Amino acid sequence: MASVYDFSVKDIHGKEQKLERYKDKVMLIVNVASKCGFTPQYKGLEALYEKMHDRGLEVLGFPCNQFGSQEPGTEKEIESFCELNYGVTFPLYGKIDVNGSNAAPLYKHLKKEKPGLLGSEAIKWNFTKFLVDRKGHIVERYAPNVEPQAIAADIEKLL
Asked: Global pTM?
């Protein structure tokens, strides 16, 4: 069975990164957008990262423009927006598709391993969150409306 560590993704600067670099870390993987009703969750994601990063939490943000064109900017614009408006210091990655034939292989894996409500694999909207344990296995999937602080106890159990 594949794990999250078997995938490579491009960071926000276009550099290929192997996710095995996060081996033995707890990961919260989130598809994000700058012009979404859930965009203020960046603040909560950053708070989790600041509070728990030293204990092994990594938050990974994957910009996605598939939902209402809510992430129209370039990677440089996205990075600047996140830093200026939310003080984001957690890793951001290149813009990806999470659904459809062009979905990133990482997201195909996440959706297959942890389907959503009623077994649906499709990502419904931006800020869908996947919690991954230290072994690279997907533990939980959270709907976009679940605030980051509501996930804190689940993360604590894995740290």
From this structure: 0.95
- The structural domain count of the chain equals 1
* Cα–Cα distances in angstroms (integers) from residue 86 to residues 5, 46, 52, 93, in the given order: 28, 8, 17, 16
**Average of pLDDT values for 2-6?**
89
Model confidence over 132-149: pLDDT tens digits? 999 999 999 999 999 999
Is 36 labeled as catalytic in the residue annotation? yes
Query: What CATH number does the domain containing 58 carry?
Result: 3.40.30.10
Angstrom CA distances, 30 to 1, 48, 77, stand at 22, 13, 18
Which residue from 126, 129, 141, 134 is spatially nearest to 157, judged by alpha carbons?
134
Q: Which of 12, 36, 92, 104 is catalytic?
A: 36
SS (H, E, C) 52-87: HHHHCEEEEEEECCCCCCCCCCCHHHHHHHHHHHHC
